[in-house]
Amino acid sequence: MNLDQLRGFLEIAETGHFTRAAERLHLAQPSLSRQISSLESELGIELFNRVRGNVSLTDAGNRLLPYARRMLADAETARSEMAGLAGLVGGRIRLGATPTLCTSLVVDVLAEFHERFPGIEIEILERGSKSLIAALMEGALDLALIVTSVGSGAARAVLDREPILSERLVVVSSTTRPDPFAEQTGPLDLLDLAGVPQIFFPENYDLRAAMDAAFHASGLAPVVAVEGAEMDAALRFAERGIGVAVVPAMVAARPQLRTRLLADPRLARTISLARRSDMAPTHASAAMQALIREIADRIGAEGGDSLVARPQGA
Length: 314
Prior knowledge:
Layout: H1 3-15, H2 18-25, H3 29-43, E1 48-51, E2 54-57, H4 59-84, E3 92-97, H5 99-102, H6 105-116, E4 121-126, H7 129-138, E5 143-149, E6 160-174, H8 190-194, E7 198-200, H9 206-217, E8 224-227, H10 231-239, E9 245-248, E10 257-261, E11 268-275, H11 283-302, E12 307-309
Helix pairs in contact: 1-2, 1-3, 1-4, 2-3, 6-11
């Protein structure tokens, strides 16, 4: 079994077609067919169903697929490591992060990393935490910045997870409209929040699930202004006074938004740096990890009550 065979196998699995796969690999179609036949002969089992031009994975092919992805990812990591040995002058890092972190923490990380190590190529995957965990375990990422909130257990699937920042959730409302919480002093409790029209995220958002669980546990039914908005849209809706929104503290710093902390300190999210524990980090990814910790510590020191670096017991 060699890497060329695995690349061919993976390309056919993704395209569902030998000819298109051969074109993408810049191979003649008969050459690709011979590679796959040789792989199947070596393994002693058919990997593809071939029926009237339609190509699909057999059960054995489906079993091989995650291993092939991981083996090719490991090979790419090895190449990057060798390229980066000479003083971090080359190499590549594949970093995953959630959309909210891509517009906050990751911006600072990339700017400083590029300044320190301009020869390192960085590939970004912007997805939700569950998708990032899957990509990490398949070997498609070197590092992932994931978030978990109250009631979330997805991060337990990651083999090595280091909490780097704890972030309180805040309520944002428009500075161009009267303050809906003007009569309340200090942090808001859920009863204060439930009576004000809110902008809710989609149900698959971890933050939405955390807030739904908190309201349910308190026996409260919040007023819904808009449901299903993504993060940037929710912030813009709040700026226009359509409703209030509960968001992470790091994304709330906008001139047209006022913020109020929620009273319950458990209404927070933990930002964690995740990686596969069965592989030693490359020199480049180790440098990236160190910088992420450094910037998280800096943000935590400057964040007051809403941000805490290196949360204990997270």
